[in-house]
Amino acid sequence: MKRITSVLIAILLIFAAITLTACGNSATRFDDATYMVTFDSQGGSAIESKTVYSGNIVINPGNPTREGYYFIGWYKSTEENAEEWKFATDAVTSNITLYARWKEKNSSVSDNADETPSETKILVVYFSRADENYSVGIIEKGNTEIIAEIIKENVGGTLFHIERATAYPATYKDCTDEAKAEQNAKARPAIKADVNIEDYDIIFLGYPIWWGDLPMPMYSFIENHDWSGKVVYPFVTHEGSGLSGTVSTLKSKLVGAAVKDGLAVRGATAQNSRDSARQAVVSWLDDFNLGSEK
Ligand SMILES: Cc1cc2nc3c(=O)[nH]c(=O)nc-3n(C[C@H](O)[C@H](O)[C@H](O)COP(=O)(O)O)c2cc1C
């Protein structure tokens, strides 16, 4: 009898220990620190604060709006060199305030014949090559140029085509050979004409992926300008490489610019499936609340 009682007591003790441990865990769960993320819209529409568990990310609250301004992003402070908050990766470990950054829309009139009546300070500048290309045969208009035109249809602004002063060979094979030699030599070939990016605030920057990188005339172009204060939206066409790390390259080269997430579209899709290409562009623009400025 004594033995049965001891066994029963032992079982009860084990059960009590398990219960206490479980309670302890749930108590820890409820005691987890939470932090408040406040959004200071800096003159834009109000955005509600969010409460986040310590170490978690905060969900992007969406873009505020402000009459006469473009929203650029949420920043860690109002300092000019402040870092942009990366909603996908930045963990919240204290109470924080994120600050909206804005760019004033331009009301001045440009004499560029290609500019839409909305007179926005948006530039859609791209490098693109027609002639024979991979997977599309001989084309009259380059794939990236098609995407650039779709972007312009949606946001307005000015289109500008960067071209090498001396045209690349018309056959695909000769072009790839020449482009490779240029890349190996880190060449900065002359371009046919330039555009004054200093007149614009928002710049859509387009190019095909060539040998996993930007074509060399793009370097000639970007190294010739002061990018500080610009908001840059990169877009590329490719045949399998996607953006191929070029957004990081742009982030390091375009000093002082806010370089946004890029768009990558297959060249053959741009050339042969315009509706799909249009959808890709519109959904990318939506991510930034752009596209209604037609
Ligand atoms: C010189 C050259 C190099 C290329 N290198 C790549 C590459 O590394 N990765 C890739 O996905 N596509 C590559 N392509 C394919 C182009 O990125 C693709 O065809 C693009 O849509 C061309 O755009 P465009 O017509 O505006 O010039 C290359 C094409 C050329 C002509």
List strands and helices in order, with pairings.
Elements: H1 2-31, E1 34-40, E2 50-53, E3 69-75, E4 96-104, E5 122-127, E6 131-133, E7 137-139, H2 143-155, E8 158-162, H3 172-184, E9 202-208, H4 216-222, E10 231-238, H5 246-253, E11 258-259, E12 263-266, H6 267-272, H7 274-287
Parallel strand pairs: 1-4, 5-8, 5-9, 9-10, 10-11, 10-12
Antiparallel strand pairs: 1-2, 3-4, 6-7
Can you describe this structure in just a few lines?
The protein is of the alpha/beta class. The chain contains 7 helices and 12 strands.
Any overview of this molecule?
- The structure is a single chain.
- The protein is of the alpha/beta class.
- The chain has two domains: 34-104, Listeria-Bacteroides repeat domain (Immunoglobulin-like); 122-287, Flavodoxin domain (Rossmann fold, 3-Layer(aba) Sandwich).
- The chain is 31% helix and 22% strand.
- It has helices spanning 2-31, 143-155, 172-184, 216-222, 246-253, 267-272, 274-287; strands at 34-40, 50-53, 69-75, 96-104, 122-127, 131-133, 137-139, 158-162, 202-208, 231-238, 258-259, 263-266.
- The strands form three sheets. Strands 5, 8, 9, 10, 11 and 12 form a six-stranded parallel beta sheet that branches. Strands 2-1-4-3 form a four-stranded mixed beta sheet, with no helix packed on it. Strands 6-7 form a two-stranded antiparallel sheet.
- α4 links the parallel β9 and β10.
- α2 crosses α7.
- The relative contact order is 0.12.
- Residues 16-31 and 107-118 have low confidence and may be disordered.
- The structure holds flavin mononucleotide.
